[in-house]
Amino acid sequence: MTPEEIQARILYKDQDVIVLDKPAGLAVHAGPNSPDHLELYLPQLCFGWAKPPRLAHRLDRDTSGCLILGRHDKAISRLGKLFMAHRIGKAYWAVTTGAPDTDCGTIDAPLLKLTGKGGWRMVIDPAGQQAVTEWRVLGRGDGMAWIECVPRTGRTHQIRLHLKALGCPLRGDAYYGPDPNPPMRLHLHSRMVSIPPLSAGKAAIHVEAPPPDHMRAALAACGWADARA
Q1: Which residue in the list 21, 60, 62, 173 is annotated as catalytic?
Q2: CATH class for the region spanning 3-221
Q3: Which of 64, 80, 101, 125 sits most deeply, having the most CB atoms within 10 A of its CB?
Q4: How far is CA 114 from the centre of its chain?
């Protein structure tokens, strides 16, 4: 991305925090399969600060939407404490293949990381770490469901596995869905974040990210109205 393109994805900016609309398909960290990653572009977001902002949390490569960055050491420290205390609110939009029988609920199913010759994956297992997701159906249509998920814990692949356990895996999920080569991108979007005041005199922050283009048709089929129309 050019400096203009990454700066155009800023949803919110103040002296402490930047909230970025991360595109689907872009990893946040470097890795063996991630020569292009978000950290390469963070120097374009200094805006007069001596150092670039840093990640306060992470999103999976294929998940789009709200990503919080801290602009300096104190902000990163305060954000870290808020995440540890579960005081930062997050809500995700998902479009699933199939739909749950009810309209809302809570999934409490521990997750365990398994590593083998072929790599690693997460599984639901009583020996794993506690994982809790609240969910509610926002719409249905064409054999799909539009679901808002609010994770109360922050485990890797939590929403993906919890929705699969609910009987409605995410569209485009190559790891946990029915098709290892799905014809579409993952339909999981970090829709909202809310951050309590980082210091006295500061206001709370509430930010929403518009759905990515690859999810709009499925969302519309479930009843979402595109504000751009």
Answers
A1: 60
A2: alpha beta
A3: 64
A4: 22
